[in-house]
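Quick one - first record:
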Amino acid sequence: MTGPDPQEIVRSLDAVADTFLTQNVERQSAQAEQSLAFLEEQTPELRSQLTAAEERLNSYRAELDSVDLSSEAQAAVQRYIDIERRINELEFQEAEMAQRYTHSHPSYRTLLRQKRHLQNEKSQLNDRVNELPAAQQEVLRLTRDVEVTQAIYINVLNKVQELQVAKAGTIGNIRIIDRAEIRGMVAPQRSRITVLATLLGLTLAVGLVLLRALFKRGVETPDQIESAGMPVYATIPLSNQQQRLARRVKRWKNKRNSGRDIMVGVLAERDPTDSAVEAIRGLRTSLHFAMLEGRNHRLMISGPSPGVGKSFVSINLAAVAAQAGMKVLLIDADLRKGHIHHAFRMRGEQGLADYLAKQLELDDIIKETSIDNLSFIPRGRVPPNPSELLMQPRFVEGLLQLDKRYDLIIFDTPPVLAVTDGCVVGKHCETSLLVARFEKNPVREIQAAKRRLESNGVDVQGVILNALERKASTAASHYGYYQYNYR
């Protein structure tokens, strides 16, 4: 037995052993106890019968003065005593057997045969007594009653004493060899628990890492993208400041926007020294030289799926280009779910969709921002046919006019694998880039988006890896980013 209280355990085990020993002794003496109870019930009745028989005999002899029994009568009395004693013993045995066997048991049937034989012998003896003189018959019967009852009474008393001795001497057939004792602490086994817990923790940790790796099949390093034949123009680290901006809007507009992250500010304006902004400045430099010999200065930024951060890249790239002295126009070409206007604290009405629907003119939809040299065209009212509107000649006419006013035009388009709007816009842009998010977009998904654009005549120059996190799997890559604080 184990438990927190050693003394209580010792007392409990000793009590169990003592109880088991007592029950064993009681079971061994149960038969003697039952026989003793039966004999003790019979003893008072036999004493009364003996007293009554003696009184009848004395009264009869006093009435006839004296009557002596012949030798034959004496022998009959002795035989009566022997028969009654044996019958009485058989009745005791019958009472005991009735508690253990049925009437059809062989031992029980043998006892009944013996009892019937003695009763027949007693009847024959009664017939012989009836042949004696009347006076001797009566004396013999009265003497027989006294002697037989006395013999039975003495026999019962002897049996009672024997059973009492047998009961008192019953010791059972088991022994308590050892008493309970404390052998020291057996539980908890701290060393075993520590080893098992360590192994279990390591197993769970490795299993969790493997499970996460199984479900997160997105790209983790630029090498994975470049090994698929697509150049990586920039790796943008995850911006904690941008996450805080997006979370505030998510809590504020959770019901109306289904929990989408919507920006309410421009990171390049809020925190120009952020590492993500520095990476976008590097992207600006790369694009400057790549677009020098292009037929136009239009740039389309799209992505394979929603939530990769293409709007974030478009907004901040436009901001850093404007800060460098370029006259920049940012166009929200996502006529379905575009939300760039929130970053500039504007409304989404009176935008590109309204111009394409011939409801407004070009000058009516161009909005000036708080950043110098940066203008913005919102999406406008959500139309029922975005792709058809973008394919109209009015879209090309507007672009030709805008080329004369701005040094760089950036288009933020919907996901390529979701709708065809990006393919339509990309045909009119000299440079097209795809944004992939760290650990979200697999290489196959990026390749599928690239094939979708190329099948529609759009040449994809490269990929931007966004929201890169510093992990062990990316730390060894030579494409990792470095962060400097210059004050």
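second record:
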Amino acid sequence: MSLGTLVLAVLILSAAAFVAGRRLALARAGGDPRRLHSLPGHYGQNAALLAAVPALALLVLWLAVQPLVVEQRVASLLPATDDATTASLAMAEVRRISVGLDRLAVAEDLSDRDLAALTPEGLAPRLRAVGAAVADVTPETLDAARAHRALQASFGLWMSILVLGASLGGLAAALLRTRPDFRARNVSERFIMWLLIAASLVAVATTVGIVLSLVFETMHFFRLYPAQDFFFSLTWNPQFRGGSDLGIWPLLWGTIYISIIALVVAVPIGLLTAIYLSEYAGPRTRGWAKPAIEILAGIPTIVYGLFALITVGPALRDWFAQPLGLGSSSSSVMTAGLVMGIMLIPFISSLSDDIINAVPQSLRDGSYGLGATQSETVKQVILPAALPGIVGAILLGASRAIGETMIVVLGAGAAAKLSMNPFEAMTTVTVKIVSQLTGDTEFASPETLVAFALGLTLFVITLVLNVLALYIVRKYREQYE
């Protein structure tokens, strides 16, 4: 049974459990809902939750553990090695062959006996023909792939049996305790509370997992490459054959430079837009202008990158860079910064608009009562009151700019350098993270692992900006409530 079919079966059982639990509660109350402790729907909800949640939790746990158990058993069939990278590559090849055998069985209508009779000679081209990226097939990897495929099928069968059994068991348990005096509402509410707690813990655990993965791989990188060279070198020149210079400062400078230009563009325009929409625009104008501006937030960043590559870059080169003798390339810091600033306008304007609208009307009325004009009220009352929130919006926009990739790739180029010329091509941390992890590279090399050190550095920078924004908002918010 496929995974989708199994989940659908559990959901159908859960829906059936809801109907059965509700009807059984009414039947045992003699058809009179007043004799029940809870509403009939609460009994059905309790049965549905017991039929679905434990079964789905078992399914998630099984899917997390199964690959580890299968690969541990299959690894014993491969040649022994002390190199973790070599073992990982061999296991990846086994997985590709296993998937290829499944596809080959479907494409050529082969039975399990036919697959067992296959030999390594001439098998690799047949597997590549069905879409399996297999380099070569050896007797050891073929045997391991067959064992992997058999274990996957066996574990999949047991997973279906146990998950459906857990769902039916939960349904039976719910129906057995469905009685008129059963506190179904309390149990259901408590169950939902723990379900929400589990969902929040998943989010927290995901964040912790991301941080730990970055930390561990960064520690591995610093065992291979000196930390002082990474943090204090002014040269970025990765060479996968050795002798690399992996200093972060050229990448960090490009990131900061492009982000500053983006904020110089986005902050004045976004803030002035927010002031106009919240204080000057009428309801009709605001009704169409605000959604029109926020459409910019829905445009994919790759489209912004294409706009930078095709339109903004050549225009800046022809009208400014070449006439001023500052460069001849359409890829530049200014190109990426301008387009990124346009992308950030709806982000800053929307947040600032909400913050300005949150300023109490009594402050405006008091200012007008003292004889202030509308512009004086905006400048001396509203903006000071909304300033903490506006600063928080700007810092959040800055963290958004620091993490941008596609606009920089297409608009600023990939040159890692330290320069003050805004019409030269530069790059950022995020672009180099992508470039170091793509292509045919050795994962255990410093030139690849440096991506995790760059990612951790970027994570710390954006975390500091977000924490600073939240601190400013929370510290000064109470003054105006």
